TrEMBL record:
The keyword Transferase does not apply. This is G-protein coupled receptors family 2 profile 2 domain-containing protein. The keyword Coiled coil does not apply. InterPro entries: GPR143 (IPR001414). It holds the Pfam family Ocular_alb. It comes from the Eukaryota.
Length: 388
């Protein structure tokens, strides 16, 4: 799991703080380690499925590119797919880190720094590096989740960022926050259990909690808002495109909203236990309900690595084949609707008292002329209820 509490276990344990010692002894049990191993295997499998096994139908499976403003960028749908892939890559690295760390804890004794006054630099370094690896890549998954929501909203509005922009922000922000939090925690002596000076201990431990929980809370707050706006935009575009709400349009709207809700639900299920754990530890440290804390920890050990597995279920195309773009179609009702719309545009441009003298050939020319647009003009293609 990714939690700042584990990183404090990597400090030298010279002071023998009773709450810390009791938590560390429970953390290093066989039962907890086995739970981490099993859940991380499912996480690795889900990430591998997203990266290498999942296949896309239609042209979005290929890396379609086009030049925009002199810069070569991915098409809108393929950009969404690329974000999902990089989210899975970060999930794979994090789950693999959980698996390797748990395996070493299972088969190598005294991986955690022992309860003694002797310097144990090797244990501290291994514990700190493995925990930093897991925290960094899970923080990347949080930011990639936010990027996917931003991309959906901007795509519906007719704008988007290049994939390199998302890469720049995700990897650099995660590295900066992880480095700052762990540097304050471990430098210079990796002795964060110095309870003789409560103020100093808080100043060393608290920044890492802020750097970890800050992005997590930001995604929890921002994603529902962004997806709510995206749902309203889907409603607006459907109404603007068809000027009526049939069962097909209602079904499409419902599928989008369900998918957005499931993406938010997965994130909350996977990471809300971490937030609860942090609140309990900081408010009840000297009178900890150990049974409650351990229950939350086991939940975290299950849900954190399973994020990749759950993402493989919600970040995929659904069976919905409705497009907004005007294109050739064999559907007679759609063809009639387009002809009626074009006829309405021509009639509105004709003076009321002027007789229409257009020939059928002229009318056909107007129908296919580029200057004639549907009103309101369809703005974006929404295909397969995925926006990827």
């Amino acid at each position: 799991m990714a939690d700042p509490t584990i990183q404090t276990f990597c400090c030298h344990n010279r002071i023998r703080s009773p709450p810390a010692i009791k938590l560390m002894s429970e953390f290093d049990t066989d039962g907890y380690i086995v739970v981490c191993l099993v859940s991380s295997v499912f996480g690795i499998a889900g990430a591998i499925y997203q990266i290498w096994i999942r296949h896309e139908d239609g042209p979005t499976h290929h890396a379609v590119r086009r030049r925009l403003g002199g810069e070569l960028t991915l098409s809108s749908q393929n950009l969404g797919r690329q974000i999902i892939v990089w989210l899975a890559v970060a999930d794979l690295c994090a789950s693999l880190g959980v698996f390797l760390r748990s395996a070493l804890w299972k088969y190598i004794n005294d991986v955690l720094p022992p309860d003694s006054d002797v310097d144990d630099t090797t244990n501290v370094v291994f514990c700190a590096v493995s925990s930093a690896w897991i925290q960094y890549f899970y923080m990347c998954t949080w930011l990639w989740t936010l990027c996917y929501a931003i991309n959906v909203r901007r795509q519906l509005g007719g704008a988007r960022y290049a994939i390199r922009t998302y890469h720049y922000y995700v990897w650099s922000i995660s590295a900066l926050l992880t480095a700052v939090g762990l540097t304050v925690l471990y430098v210079p002596d990796a002795d964060c259990h110095n309870v003789h000076d409560i103020t100093t201990a808080y100043m060393r431990i608290l920044p890492n909690y802020i750097m970890t929980y800050g992005p997590m809370i930001a995604v929890m707050v921002a994603n529902p808002v962004i997806y709510y706006q995206a749902s309203r935009e889907v409603d607006r575009q459907l109404v603007a495109r068809f000027s009526q709400m049939s069962n097909t349009e209602r079904d499409l709207m419902a599928k989008f909203k369900i998918k957005f809700s499931l993406i938010n639900l997965v994130f909350y299920v996977c990471w809300l236990p971490n937030l609860v754990n942090g609140v309990v530890l900081w408010t009840m440290w000297f009178n900890l309900p150990f049974s409650m804390v351990l229950t939350v920890w086991y939940i975290m050990a299950i849900t954190n690595p399973l994020q990749a597995f759950f993402n493989s279920l919600v970040y995929q195309k659904w069976n919905c084949r409705l497009r907004f773009r005007r294109q050739a179609s064999s559907d007679s009702s759609a063809e009639v609707r387009r002809r009626n719309r074009t006829s309405l545009v021509t009639n509105e441009g004709t003076p009321l008292l002027q007789p229409k003298t257009e020939s059928p050939s002229t009318s056909t020319l107007h129908l296919h002329h580029p200057s004639v647009e549907l009103i309101p003009k369809p703005t974006r293609s929404i295909n397969s209820c995925s926006l990827v």
